[in-house]
Write a structure and sequence with these properties.
The chain has 160 residues and is α+β, with helices and mostly antiparallel strands. It has helices at 33-47, 66-74, 91-103, 113-128, 142-148, 150-159, and strands at 10-15, 22-28, 54-57, 78-81.
Length: 160
């Protein structure tokens, strides 16, 4: 992305597969394990899931590192990675990244890392999670879906 400040390179997200809500995210100028751990930690702080949660990712070295495995173990998270060469295993995450690029990042130049990070915050927290409708959710936003399906989602999250 030549329009974006070169220091803004990577966005990591954690997505609730049931509601498509981005429940944790982090931005950095590197693709180190700390980035994905920051996104996972953000999700843990926000959601406080029960032990046994399954965290699915691609086979990137950040997700298969000992550091990431330790963070998951401390929080009782079971790690799951997609099959080699199967992009469909991580399709929800790839779709959300495509949407963020199309609807936000590729629409204008970003003069600074701070401006881009603030725009990503406003997009995720003020639009994507709260107002953007998803066809897979019956054209509800993730927030509206969670509100209307709270009873359906709660037992699955407690049992996870």
């Amino acid at each position: 992305m030549t329009d974006v400040d070169p220091r803004l390179k990577i966005l990591a997200t954690v997505i609730d597969l049931a509601s498509r809500r981005i429940v944790g995210w982090a931005v950095a100028d590197h693709l180190k394990t700390d980035l994905v751990d920051d996104a996972l930690t953000d999700a843990l702080v926000r959601r406080r899931p029960a032990s046994g949660l399954v965290f699915h990712s691609d086979r990137g070295c950040q997700y298969t590192s000992a550091q990431h495995a330790r963070l998951a173990a401390v929080h009782g998270i079971r790690l799951s990675v997609g099959r080699r060469g199967q992009c469909w295993d991580n399709a929800v995450a790839e779709s959300s990244f495509s949407t963020i690029k199309t609807e936000l990042l590729h629409r204008q130049p970003w003069p600074t890392h701070t401006a881009a990070r603030q725009a990503i915050f406003e997009y995720i927290e003020g639009w994507y999670n709260t107002r953007r409708r998803h066809s897979t959710l019956g054209y509800l936003s993730p927030t509206a879906y969670e509100a209307t399906h709270h009873e359906d989602l709660l037992p699955a999250r407690q049992a996870a």
